[in-house]
Amino acid sequence: xxxxxxxxxxxxxxxxxxxxxxxxxxxxxxxxxxxxxxxxxxxxxxxxxxxxxxxxxxxxxxxxxxxxxxxxxxxxxxxxxxxxxxxxxxxxxxxxxxxxxxxxxxxxxxxxxxxxxxxxxxxxxxxxxxxxxxxxxxxxxxxxxxxxxxxxxxxxxxxxxxxxxxxxxxxxxxxxxxxxxxxxxxxxxxxx
Length: 192
Description:
The chain is α/β, with parallel strands linked by helices. A 5-stranded parallel β-sheet has the order 3-2-1-4-5, with helices on both faces. 35% of the residues lie in helices and 14% in strands.
């Protein structure tokens, strides 16, 4: 993948698909991930529910949104939806430059907690964006990558179209293989 002005090159000790990728994905599919929801995530989720109660509409989720600029751009792309950007870092979210769009919400929460709560309440997504999540490029960190994490089945259960972007091609390839292992088909393409 070409480098942009916004992303640093990824340096990794892993040159090909992780040898335990399939085993890890299969294990997560067959064993439920159990982690309690963090209190700050539960509070953030209540904000999401309040926004939906005020104005019911379909959902778009921008997981790991960083400063929320992608969330604002997605809100323009999906004007009939509530676009929710979620990031665990208050520091990154405080860098957000507000826009005139009124159909997005930024939440400081663990994305995986929000996924769990949405599923608990049987709320689904129309679109789910994962734009440049932390690639955890060291081989030993496979289980910290979205597709290697125990919460990966939750991401799948939320429904809707899933779009992942990364400046590390191997990450995209692994994500694609993980989706394929779950029966989900997709396409990998290079964008500038």
